[in-house]
Write a structure and sequence with these properties.
20% of the residues lie in helices and 29% in strands. Bound molecules: uridine-diphosphate-N-acetylglucosamine and calcium ion.
Length: 441
């Protein structure tokens, strides 16, 4: 775990005004083979760019460099991250060029500039805080995050001198055979003392194999001008995993999922079969809850202790489940509050609902919350100790009173009072002697 700012005795306010971040997100993402811009692809229902931004909440200002699919990315950011600034890189001439365009927004800025890529969503906030602390403690002008990879192919290589000081970064395409053998790679995450490197940003040239302006040239620039250039070697390599293809997207999802399951198990949650269980990073679960196989939990949810969830339960976000709740086979919940001791055990959909404590919802019950004609969603309220028979439809908006009973197979369109029976189904008919005994062989 990285040190938090509080532990360093550095107040949040102080830090905020000292640090800004630039996120490079203008690249095409050709390998995604998609009409959607790369950084808007989602892991656990959240775009990659959002996952990066959520990890730098300590920064005073975030500037995202957009290019490919700029209008879509801007629209998303304006709606969801209104404080984030976007700058347009019309032509993608390289990471150095992207930084230069962002730097136009930073004319008078004198603090630290954290630079990240929009396609690296697995980096943790703790790590980034630790990285910036390291930069400050070393009074560095430039700090580069590096990692040692068994298979460094595709990455920029870190070239150190015989004292271990960093000299430069060489891109794979510009590397000779000897350089290609270096296993220490550039993670693409940097912290700059902005004033110290400002001039260097202006001087980046594009004389290399790809004819691009490389941000990585700043390292050589700094090293040659006795700027203090430091390396921060990250141990947990999965954090810097970059998403460039649909396969990477799936791998990223798996890393995030495994991380979450392991954190939950460490905190006392029983996960019977991690291989078939998927739980979003935004879900909190208390100890002694048991998650049975084939459970999918998406979005932001809170689940109490001693619950039993699954098998085959799907939570779609916005769920608050109290203690001792049972959710069983083929039960789907969305925006639902469920109080303690309630059972929803089979084949039910409960959406936009508040369910009281010790309620029993029989198999095959549906809260009909959506009017597809008006597109209006309405709420269902089921109060404490109510019992809903099997195969009921509760047509929202509707409220079921405390201790009331709903007969199986009812379609309930009106509120039901406390301690009442709600029944809405055709009366049973019986035709005596319908079958002639002699007819049956
Ligand atoms: C870059 C680094 C490489 C490092 C690797 C880590 C350079 C020259 N190389 O290579 O050393 O090992 O990241 O993942 O920086 N982008 C723009 N505008 C551009 C070009 C790129 O905004 O004109 C953005 C991309 O959207 C992406 C990021 O910059 O988010 C990195 O660009 P990419 O082309 O993926 O660089 P790599 O070749 O992976
Ligand atoms: Ca990349």
């Amino acid at each position: 775990m990285g040190k938090s700012w509080g532990e360093k005795g550095c107040s949040l306010v102080e830090m905020e005004k000292d640090l800004k971040a630039v996120i490079l997100a203008a690249g095409k993402g050709t390998r995604m083979k998609s009409g959607t811009p790369k950084v808007l692809h989602e892991i656990f229902n959240k775009p990659l760019i959002a996952r990066v931004l959520d990890n730098i909440s300590f920064s005073a200002e975030n500037i995202v460099v957009i290019g490919h699919g700029a209008s879509l990315v801007k629209e998303y950011l304006d709606r969801n991250y209104p404080k984030t600034k976007t700058v347009l890189q019309k032509e993608q001439l390289g990471t150095g060029h992207a930084l230069k365009i962002a730097s136009f927004e930073l004319e008078e800025f004198k603090g630290n500039l954290l630079v990240l890529c929009g396609d690296t969503p697995l980096i943790r906030q703790n790590t980034l805080e630790d990285f910036v602390n390291f930069h400050n403690e070393n009074r560095a002008d430039i700090t580069v995050m590096s990692a040692v990879f068994d298979n460094p192919r595709g990455y920029g290589r870190i070239v150190r001198d015989n004292k271990g000081n960093v000299k430069k970064i060489v891109e794979e395409k510009d590397a000779d055979l000897k350089t290609k053998q270096i296993k220490e790679i550039n993670a693409g995450i940097y912290c700059f003392n902005f004033e110290a490197v400002k001039k260097g940003i202006d001087e980046i040239k594009n004389q290399n194999a790809q004819g691009e302006y490389y941000i990585t040239d700043l390292i050589k620039w700094g090293a040659e001008r006795s700027k203090k250039v430091c390396l921060y070697v990250i141990k947990s390599c999965d954090e810097i995993f970059g998403i460039n293809s649909k396969k990477h997207l799936a791998q990223g999802y798996c890393i995030m999922k495994e991380r979450k399951l392991s954190e939950l198990m460490d905190n006392g949650v029983t996960i019977v079969d991690p291989h078939t269980t998927s739980i979003s990073p935004e879900t909190e679960i208390e100890p002694d809850t048991v998650i049975l196989p084939s459970v999918v939990i998406e979005g932001k949810n809170k689940i109490g202790k001693n619950c039993k969830i699954g098998p085959f339960t799907h939570l779609r976000g916005g769920c608050e489940i109290e203690d001792f709740v049972k959710l069983g086979n083929f039960v789907e919940l969305k925006n639902a509050k469920v109080k303690s001791g309630t059972n929803i055990c089979h084949l039910s959909y409960v959406g936009d609902s508040s369910v009281g404590s010790n309620v029993n919802i029989g198999a095959g019950t549906i809260t009909a919350n959506y009017d597809s004609r008006t597109k209006i969603k309405s709420r269902t309220k089921i109060n404490d100790n109510a019992s809903i028979g099997s195969n009921c439809v509760l047509v929202a908006p509707v409220e079921i009173g405390e201790n009331s009973l709903i007969g199986a197979g009812s379609v309930i369109t009106k509120n039901v009072d406390d301690y009442s029976l709600g029944l809405c189904r055709a009366a049973q008919k019986e035709i005596k002697n319908y079958i002639k005994k002699g007819e049956i062989k």
